[in-house]
Design a protein that fits this description.
The complex is a heterodimer of chains A (608) and B (271).
Chain A lengths: L7 E10 L6 E11 L4 E5 L6 H8 L8 E10 L7 E2 L8 H4 L4 E4 L13 H13 L3 H14 L5 H5 L8 H13 L5 E5 L7 H18 L2 E6 L2 H7 L2 E6 L2 E7 H6 L4 H9 L41 E14 L4 E16 L4 E5 L6 H8 L7 E6 L2 E2 L5 H7 L3 E4 L13 H11 L5 H14 L16 H13 L5 E5 L7 H18 L2 E6 L2 H7 L2 E6 L2 E7 H6 L4 H9 L23 E3 L9 E3 L5 E3 L2
Parallel strand pairs in A: 3-8, 3-9, 6-7, 7-8, 13-18, 13-19, 16-17, 17-18
Antiparallel strand pairs in A: 1-2, 1-4, 4-5, 9-10, 11-12, 11-14, 12-21, 14-15, 19-20, 20-23, 22-23
Chain B lengths: L1 H28 L2 H5 L25 H37 L1 H15 L3 H12 L3 H28 L2 H8 L4 H37 L11 H8 L8 H28 L5
The chains are: A alpha/beta (608), B mainly alpha (271).
């Protein structure tokens, strides 16, 4: 891949941001190069400066309050002499941005302007940069949409962004970035907000376009598995500094820096748990090796029923329309879902966005009201409870939410937040309460002086520990964890997962673990339910579902997960977009009851 | 940030402190006659040694009037805003937090009230209750309530959707505790901003009511009354409008700065 003249050469780049107490350095003297036609992945956790680096190349960092203090950003335009983008007049940038360098952003929902049609947004750049006439630009836009394999491209041109799914929108964003045939494509976490099967499609598309057009790609991500699938070379960043750089095989096979090793070890890898009897903590380099929790599921003596039993749970949301706001249809979010969770057991519900897994969790706690079905928690019929009884039932069931930034009240001190459930049920007072809170902080691994702090003073992982302490405070029997580790960096995610497993072994907790991440689910769960369109399509022990998947959807889900191994590239370049079926049905529609094939005593598969 | 905060606080405290001191102590040092005494030979005089801020159309000393008027204006504005908060805050929170039918009923009533111009509403209330200081305060306070209730409801609706409220509900928090611990602290910033803005409008509303003969009764001085009276003489005696106008501006500026400071102090993120 070595050629004499690199396309991009970043030399000693330093970017500062204005802070309350003087400048904060976002990127410290970074140097790396991108050759023509090469894919360079910049990988790092939040705050590592990976996005700042890419935004600097487009000189967009200034709009975020940053300043390029020193360094050179050499870019070699087609057939021209290299220019230093750090020194160039900002007025000149629009000629390069979107023309010579294309950019794809993380959020396909917000990267498109909701008030303009897809066609208008695609042709704008073409007319400005290439001086095309309206007809020529439209023809080219159509061609571009075909290139990104969007079905019915002619119709899409007249549609507005909200009429398209997330995966379709990201394809449009890619088409926009490709419109002027840039030599460099910068992609900032382009698949993070997408489901795994759609992620695989998008990664395949980027790979194909890169090869066909000989374009270089600078790919920013936090996901080591995506790096392994896509990169030619890897740049690892941490705290604004370059930790390690090298060819992808070398980084994965023989990482030099301790941080790279830690990063690789923290990633749960699908298939790693093959043949293991129970959940197992992740090894975190530098931390003492934790033992496997084979003892986590104590032998049950006598006929103890399940701690939670869900039968025929159905939740539908009305969709209103027309002038009178009548109910015109129902969203069948959860459709006839049944499962049990035993004492000290983790059942994971896994599926893609919109499959109803979160709604299932909320319906069990009655944070949303189910339409039908039974929820029996520890012998108590949850759906039959009045408001007071429901409140008391929450002593047994607690919840940990996805977003650790939003699930804590910014105006309340942390000890008060952890104490709240205890106060609600008047379980302890005075020094007993203080002791209990201190114990909980110790138990989730937070320093005691954090008790007096406010949420904004903590990192994401620390906040999630507070949320776990809050859930633990009333000694619940079941904790519902809704994407509880999804918003965390990999190294932090590993710690929180280990904590959850430790707590289960110590307190005999049962978990309902909601996640979209197959590798995480494989790590933590005893049993797994795969959800699709509001139904459980397959449920069984972890080994049964992961090692012997029977339903076609489970197989599709498993094959979409990128593997953190550059020698096993499994992304197909020609993956056409699959249409998403809709869970919206007219009023009065009663879907047929699900019929399950029994594969074994614990393994059931939905009949098609 | 900390340094900037204290500059803001210093100016705010100085301005508001000045106005409050004047309002409290001016009546002790300035005999009431100073403000009502008409000197027919000295009508519409520009500022001079004997009348430092000039005189109005009846030859009354503007300095004395603006200082004595401070008490009336502040008292009316602050009391009216307090009334609108006492009425509007619970209405807005109940509406936004409980939603559903309660919200529908309350908000239709509020919308109906909002469709009247504020002054007309205050005028009607004042006319029904009878023209005196106390009734003016009640009239302005009630007339401002729908605005406050609307803003509080909007904020409550936003906060209710936050995951920490759902988390607290999942933790078994009762409605009362939920409102006190989670809803109220998080709508405080918006409430403070609205309250400081309302103060300025309350002073002007009082002026309008006084002009129509329903607020402060002459010869008592209030800033609003002074601004209204100066209307006819703007071209020949602009100071008659400037004196109460500047006093009002200083008060509002000070209150807004203090409101900002209070909001920042309450926000743990700015500590």
């Amino acid at each position: 891949m070595k050629s004499a003249a690199p396309l991009v050469s970043v030399e000693n780049l330093r970017v500062e941001f204005k802070g309350e107490f003087g400048p904060i350095t976002g990127v410290k003297d970074i140097s790396f190069t991108v050759q023509p036609g090469e894919t360079v992945c910049v990988v790092g956790e939040s705050g590592s400066g990976k996005s700042v680096t890419s935004l600097s190349l487009l000189r967009l960092v200034e709009f975020g309050g940053g300043r390029i203090v020193s360094g050179k950003l050499w870019f070699r335009p087609e057939g021209g002499a290299p220019i230093d983008l750090a020194q160039i007049d900002p007025e000149e940038m629009p000629r390069i941005r979107g023309n010579q360098i294309g950019m794809i952003f993380q959020e396909p929902m917000t990267a498109l302007n909701p008030v303009f049609t897809i066609g208008r947004q695609l042709t704008d750049g073409l007319r400005r940069h290439r001086g095309l006439s309206a007809e020529a630009a439209t023809a080219r836009a159509l061609e571009l949409l075909r290139e990104v394999q969007l079905p019915e491209p002619a119709r899409r041109l007249k549609q507005y962004p909200h009429e398209l799914s997330g995966g379709m929108r990201q394809r449009v964003v890619i088409a926009m970035a490709m419109a002027c045939r840039p030599q460099l494509l910068i992609a900032d976490e382009p698949t993070t907000a997408l489901d795994v099967t759609i992620q695989a499609e998008i990664l395949g598309l980027i790979g194909r376009l890169k090869r066909e057009l000989g374009m270089a790609v600078l790919f920013i991500t936090h996901d080591m598995a995506v790096v392994a699938q896509l990169a030619d070379r890897v740049v690892v960043m941490r705290h604004g500094e370059l930790v390690e750089e090298g060819p992808v095989e070398q980084i994965f096979a023989a990482p030099k820096a301790d941080y790279t090793k830690a990063l690789l070890a923290s990633v749960p890898k699908l298939g790693e748990m093959r043949g293991k009897p129970g959940p197992e903590p992740l090894r975190i380099p530098g931390a003492p090796a934790a033992e496997a929790f084979t003892h986590a599921k104590p032998e049950m003596t006598g006929p103890i029923g399940p701690i939670l039993s869900v039968k025929g749970l159905t939740t539908r949301f009305p969709m209103r329309g027309g002038i009178l706001q009548r109910v015109v249809a129902n969203v069948h979010a959860v459709e006839d879902v049944s499962f049990d969770i035993a004492h000290a057991e983790t059942l994971a519900l896994v599926g893609e966005s919109g499959c109803g897994k979160s709604t299932t969790a909320r319906s069990i706690l009655r944070l949303v009201e189910p339409t039908a079905g039974d929820v029996i928690m520890d012998g108590q019929d949850i759906r039959g409870l009045n408001a007071g009884g429901l409140r008391l039932s929450r002593r047994n069931m607690q919840m940990v939410f996805q977003d650790p930034f939003a699930s804590l009240n910014p105006y309340m001190r942390l000890w008060k937040q952890v104490a709240e459930p205890i106060l609600n049920f008047d379980l302890a007072r005075g020094s007993e309460l203080d002791d209990r809170i201190a114990f909980l902080f110790d138990r989730v691994g937070l320093p005691r002086d954090f008790m007096r702090r406010f949420p904004h003073e903590l990192s994401g992982g620390q906040r999630q520990r507070v949320a776990i302490a809050r859930a633990l405070s009333v000694n619940p029997k079941l904790i519902v964890a809704d994407e509880a580790v999804s918003a965390l960096d990999v190294s932090v995610q590993a710690q929180v997962l280990n904590l959850l497993m430790e707590l289960q072994a110590e307190f005999g907790l049962s978990y309902l673990f909601i996640s979209h991440d197959m590798a995480v689910v494989e790590r933590i769960s005893h049993r797994v339910g795969v959800m699709h369109l509001g139904r459980i399509v397959e449920i069984g022990t972890r080994a049964e579902v992961f090692e012997d998947p029977r339903h076609s959807y489970t197989r599709a889900l498993l094959s979409g997960v990128p593997i953190a191994d550059p020698t096993h590239r499994m992304i197909k370049e020609n993956s056409a977009l699959k249409p998403l079926p809709s869970p919206i049905f007219p009023i009065g529609h009663h879907p047929a009851r699900p019929i399950y094939d029994e594969v074994s005593r614990s393994h059931f598969v939905l009949q098609d | 940030m900390v340094r900037f905060l204290s500059v803001k606080a210093l100016i705010g405290f100085t301005l508001v402190g000045l106005v409050v001191l004047v309002a409290l102590f001016a009546p002790m040092f300035i005999p009431a006659e100073r403000a009502t005494q008409m000197v027919m030979t000295a009508r519409l005089q520009p500022p001079s040694l004997s009348f430092p801020l000039g005189t109005d159309q009846l030859g009354r000393d503007l300095l004395a009037r603006v200082m004595l008027g401070a008490q009336t204006s502040l008292l009316i504005a602050v009391s009216a805003v307090v009334i609108s908060i006492v009425l509007g805050l619970p209405l807005g929170i109940i509406s936004g937090y409980f939603g559903g039918r309660i919200d529908n009923v309350l908000m239709r009533v509020i919308d109906a009230l909002l469709s009247f111009p504020v002054l007309l509403l205050a005028l009607t209330i004042s006319a029904v209750l009878g023209p005196n200081l106390q009734n003016t305060v009640i009239a302005i306070g009630v007339a401002f309530t729908p605005f406050l209730a609307r803003i509080v409801r909007g904020e409550a609706l936003r906060v209710v959707q936050m995951p920490y409220v759902e988390a607290a509900r999942a933790a078994g928090t009762r409605d009362g505790a939920m409102i006190m611990r989670h809803i109220l602290p998080n709508i405080m910033p918006a409430l403070i901003v609205q309250a400081t803005i309302s103060l300025a409008f309350a002073v002007l509303a009082e002026a309008a009511l006084s002009f129509l003969g329903l607020g402060t009764q002459p010869p008592m001085a209030s800033w609003g009354l002074m601004i209204q009276a100066s209307r006819q003489f703007l071209d020949i005696a602009p100071w008659t409008a400037l004196v109460p106008g500047v006093a009002l501006a200083i008060t509002i500026l000070g209150l807004n700065l203090l409101g900002d400071v209070l909001r920042d102090v309450l926000d743990p993120r700015s500590r």
